[in-house]
Amino acid sequence: MAITNLTNLTSAQNTYELVKFANDVTLGYLSVLFIISIFIIITLISMKNYEFDEALTLSAFISFGISIYLSVIGLINFKFIIFFAVIFSIGGFWIYISKH
Fold this sequence. Notes:
This protein is mainly alpha-helical. The chain has 4 helices and no strands. It has helices at residues 15-25, 29-46, 52-72, 79-99. α2 packs antiparallel against α3 (52-72) and α3 packs antiparallel against α4 (79-99). The longest helix has 21 residues, at 52-72. The chain is elongated and about 60 Å long. The termini are far apart.
């Protein structure tokens, strides 16, 4: 069995390569947990000014945009774009129904 030094970062030339390396070492969980934590944090912060359904829709929209960017650069899977798009759509529909 070969010994691999996972902390050897001599090949990282910029921030993207560092994050990509950390994401590869954690088997993709780094960026997934990052986007989910952003979603939860934005939901909790926006609940100060909005109701829960509006806060959830706002955080889903922001997370949707961030997940598109992370998917384009290859850090997360495409299914997270769909996940946040579905939450955003359901939240928007719920707000529309509740206001009318």
